[in-house]
User: What shape does this take?
Amino acid sequence: MEKRKLPVLPVAAPPEGSRPHAPLGEGCFLGEEELPKAPALKEALATIKNWFRAQSLWVMAYGTGCGAIELRPLTTARFDMERFGMAMRPTPRQSNVLIVSGYLATKSLKRVIRAYEQMPSPKWIVGLGSCTINGGMYWDSYNTINRLDLYLPVDVYIAGCMPRPEALIEGFKYLMERVKKGEANGWHHYLENLDWYKANQKKLITDWNLPDYNW
Amino acid sequence: MSLKNTLAPFSAWMQAFSKPFTVPDEPGVRPGAPRYRGWHINDRETCIGCGTCAEICQNVAIDMVPVDEPTKGDSGLRPKVDYGRCCWCALCVDVCPSGSLAMSNEYVWVDHDGDAFRYTPGVDEKPWDGAELGWRKDEGFDIVDHERVPMGHLDPEERIHTWAEVVVGYTEEEARREAARCVECGLCVAACPAHMHIPDYIAAIRDGDDVRALNVIYDNNSMPEMCGKVCTRRCESVCSIGVNGDPLAIRWLKRYVTERFDDLKSVLDVDVERVGEGRKIAVIGGGPSGITVAYYLAIRGFEVTIHEALPQLGGATFFGIPKYRFPMPSLEKQIKLLEDAGVKIVTNHRVEGDELRRMLEENDAVFIGTGLMKPYRLGAEGEDLPGVVYALDLLRDKNIGREVEVGERVVVVGGGNVAIDAARVSRRLGAEVTIAYRRRIVDMPADDEEIEDAEAEGVEIIPQAIPLRVERTDDGRLDFVWGPAEMVPSDRGRPRPKLIEGVEHHMVVDRVIVAIGQSADHSWMPPDIAEKVADAKGWITVDHNGMTGHRGIFAGGDLVNDTADAISAIADGLRAVEGIQRFLGILPEREETEPEIPVITVR
Amino acid sequence: MKTIIDDIRARFSVEWEHEQRADLAQIGVAPGTVVPLLTWMKLHTPFVQLNHLSVVDWLEDGEFQLTYLLTDPHGHRSLMVCTRIPREEATMESVHELWPQAVTYEQEINEMFGIHFPGSPRQGVPFILEGWDDLPPMRRDFDTVAYMHAHHPSRPGREHVDPRVYVGKVFGERGYLHDDD
Assistant: This one.
């Protein structure tokens, strides 16, 4: 599995009184852990699983910013995302792709984190638009984050302000490629570096009242 | 329920055979509109690295990064765009003074690495390089103002009858308006030999703070009023606004500020340690370089004496430049500042014989800025006839107030500023004037504006004219004989004139004024010292401190540099100001280190 | 509009007036006049609807300007009642008893500008922000760029060279009227 380099960033200790998240370890679902031990078979199974996964990206229908306006055409006949096996789902429990569509207010970030954590693994995040990369035109705003990857693992970025639906389709095709190759494993990264992500999240979100899910 | 109603939904199956409405899943099937604003493209060669794009970007998406060697007219920096910030508004393209920046109509860019979305257009290769379509600046539209605030001139008909200044000068409102055009890129600083703080004083003028502007100007130029009137303004030749429009009127802005104050000493805020107390410096030659050395050393406590052969300081700016370009009161103001700073001025004193040796003993250092005073000879038959004169002599005699007479018809040989000055002075003395120049008008070293002004005043210019000989006519006038030349390519770069044999033109004139350049004259120095200071051809080379081959003798001005303009002389003077202090151990010896690149990282 | 302003002038002291359009005018009154004026207008004039309550931060003057936009729904015309209050410990009488919807405006203004409306029910309750612990962000003395640098890290690796400074350094720009520090 490809290891990603973590950005070096000073993070604050969790605020007083906040419960630590449930420890990782025995019983945690980490996907491939449960596969048979024989390496060749394991690999073959993983390839088949990844192929299936890539054919059924179900998108959480949640628009955080202005980029959500570019998502809607995808569901129409003109751009027709269903031909790629993609569909919009109304709840995180039924989705495995979360699109952060543009700027993300600190307040929305909290909801996005909660939605992401409720999504069943394997799951992927698509950062749509410049804002998710480095703040975009909201770079100096008091209430929007500049870098999404400090708080959630991003599998694919689609640059542009705003990216057109065609660019979105290219982004999803790229995501499918990476899923098939087993390279899109941001959800793994999230679990492995949960402490780091949580610390970043809690540093920004001062009134932390999210449940700690049992991983 | 009828059968029709039951079957109606199945009519949808007919759509299975119609042409699909869906956009096919093929890359590039829907290109951006011809004027779509997508990823940037930049012409690395046309770009001058002025950074105006980075300055205007509302999202701080553009960084200027060092790519090429900085040269005069190109900072060597190129814009690097962060697509984690860029919002495709194209302000950068619309403001770009050189017109190098544009946008392609490519808009798809996908990556899993968030750090990937940065590149330097035109430097980092991208698939959309050289895209034909995309956003370009609209024809005729510009955010920066390309039109200079016009400068008033005296009417040509009127000015040939007067010695009054030709240029009227900016009013306060005009100056502020002109200053507001500046984009503060600083390319001009590189081109100015003295590296004046040009964007800073223009900003001060724009802000209405003329006192600050004057202080910034005097920070490294002690004769700015002269520069404001007659400078060769290399700064304007590299001005980024000038790439596609009129360059900032930097010279006129400086002129505006310097003319506003009469008592300079009370306005200038000098804050230097008097490190030179008790040390003596002799300056030989009171031209711009000598005045610069004298002023900046005097305010540091040095005891400076200027020795000048003519009755007035100023060097070429006094005796060479006609008063309709640089009037006397302006020069006197400058000299008063020197006197106020405590400089001793000895005029009408030509240093000769062993005097230099004595000066070396009595002073801690000697600065020589004697300029080029010996005119080149014409090298044509009959040049010693009475009536063949040198332009420098004519200009000097006029400027120190002697009676000058040129007759009715004059030919000036040469194409530099001196030739133009001689022509315009002769015009004011009532003569019909013709300039004969060896090369084409575009090759003339004189300032374009000067050439235009001369032509407006009725001076005729004959290009590609090579003087053959001068003969005396029966009625006591001169017959100036010249032959036409054709331009042939030369291995030296610019084409050279070649005489067309067998054709001769005659022109009957009263004066032939020779203005084809000057050389140095070192006959006033003791030979053993002159040998160390200058080489066999009379050229003086100096080290990085401005010191000649003789210990303790510094030199500058036209003697040393080959550009022969006042601002280069001032730059030489500044170098000697530092050099003399280093020589005397007041400043530490300069270490040759790479300059630190001033980087801003918090973006 | 002139009639209504004349009517107001007959009863209250009006500092200034400005007729922007035939159907829109502004008047300026002292802070203490606002509530009596608005009460009178709601009861005795057609201007019965509070459309909006907004704030302008006049930082240099040390004042906030509050603007109450009143509308005559049948006559299709509006009157803006403006008042200026000191910026320091800014407090203003609440109008929520005249118009219940004013509670929301006052809550938002309280959060974004830090103006206190005593008696208004949801003062101090977060409206848009969550866990905010800095200056109210819509105040003009709130430095949004500094806040961004402190709380929302940007992607590292950006390096900008200012051409003006760079050219000066490379070509040896120096000054001679002042000693270097």
Notes: The mean pLDDT of chain C is 93. Strands of chain C lie at 14-21, 24-29, 49-58, 63-72, 77-86, 160-161.
